[in-house]
Amino acid sequence: xxxxxxxxxxxxxxxxxxxxxxxxxxxxxxxxxxxxxxxxxxxxxxxxxxxxxxxxxxxxxxxxxxxxxxxxxxxxxxxxxxxxxxxxxxxxxxxxxxxxxxxxxxxxxxxxxxxxxxxxxxxxxxxxxxxxxxxxxxxxxxxxxxxxxxxxxxxxxxxxxxxxxxxxxxxxxx
Length: 174
Fold this sequence. Notes:
Helix content is 48%, strand content 8%. The protein has helices at 11-19, 28-39, 47-53, 61-68, 81-96, 102-110, 113-123, 144-147, 157-163, and strands at residues 7-9, 43-46, 75-76, 126-128, 154-155.
């Protein structure tokens, strides 16, 4: 990839799309558009998200799609020194924040979310997530609540698709 993707996708983008409004059977164009924009160096994700997605059942359509249809280049390596340093800064902020319960901090430390924010921070990308801010949350660290602190922009699926000028058209399945 010659440049850094503009949009860095969270695992919930894939999971929610598959389970709800963009299932493979109903809207194959959604999945095709992800591939198209990845080939155009606009959309990507990170290795930690791939790991989360592959935790599903081997028979799951999404797991199969990630394994068989997504090129390995879709999931960027988050193991660089710059990303690790950004992740450390994010984790220090989370650990020092008295708002969150210890179990919320521990879960955040093991999820892909911190790495996703760190990667976007280093590479000036926008995180695409369905998570919504919950500034009073104590039981879970929501990634939109840390974006402002680290100057990371974010979008939801629909905001990304609107910016990319994506349109899905109806056709009868025969």
